[in-house]
């Protein structure tokens, strides 16, 4: 019988994987621990591997998997930055992801945070909790219909956000992408540089992968080009932003509100309970303490639809490699 080892399994994934197991008659062993040097031996004797990997994979893992005869690692999310694609290829390991488990889920989160920033809902919530029911300029909202939204990265998610804010709210939409999409040009105006987009935008929404060309793209120089009190939403990758530069931009008023679903050093914290532990990250502590920053622990995607698609498509990718030595969603 074909056997798949599934790492990083959360409680809500179990019934979905069990149902897939019954439908396919393939044995799936589920492990809450992620794929690491000290857990990789658990998959010996299996035909394929899936993981929900938010932490960099140790280099030794690829060679160990190859020695087991395992030819794949199927990531159950879009991000594949924890993997060394060159080293995986060298060891005949196919890395796959789930690029489109629910673009609408992340897009809806993005629009919700844009509205949060525009209408100062975060301030109003805190004010009401203190029984302060007054109107003031500090909580007077803006209109999305009168704003220009800059989309950085016009893949599936970025395009969905563009349609939501344009078709649903009447916002003007501009954007940047190295690979422009012809369909979206009917509602979005492309500019040749990120700098041009941020200079013209009241709201910036990030939807790029983390690559050597995009890491810390948002730095002191770029923040200096922002309009004052720009709303910034990052539901892409934490490494896109130099976080200390963002803090300086917040202090200077270049960023008026930041909604961050990702943080560049989040891997030690995401999925963990720190209520009785010291955070030991002064930058993250600073962000969380600010009234005009909303940090969520990488959960923009987190809907019923997303979780089901992530499990099904990753397990299907594993089966594709086992059966055909290739996968539709391979990234290396």
Entry summary:
The chain is α/β, with parallel strands linked by helices. It has 11 helices and 12 strands. Helix 6 (156-168) links the parallel strand 6 and strand 7 (172-176).
Radius of gyration: 21 Å
Cα distance spanning the termini: 28 Å
- The tally of beta strands, per DSSP, is 12
What is the helix fraction of residues, given as a range? 25-40%
What does this 3D model show about the protein?
- The protein is of the alpha/beta class and 332 residues long.
- Helix content is 34%, strand content 15%.
- It contains eleven helices and twelve strands.
- The chain has helices spanning 14-24, 60-67, 85-90, 103-118, 121-129, 156-168, 194-200, 220-223, 243-252, 282-289, 304-324, and strands at 3-6, 27-30, 48-51, 72-75, 94-96, 148-152, 172-176, 188-190, 203-206, 230-234, 255-260, 293-295.
- The strands form two sheets. Strands 8-7-6-9-10-11-12 form a seven-stranded parallel sheet, with helices on both faces.
- Strand 6 (148-152), helix 6 and strand 7 (172-176) form a beta-alpha-beta unit.
- Helix 4 packs across helix 6.
- It is globular.
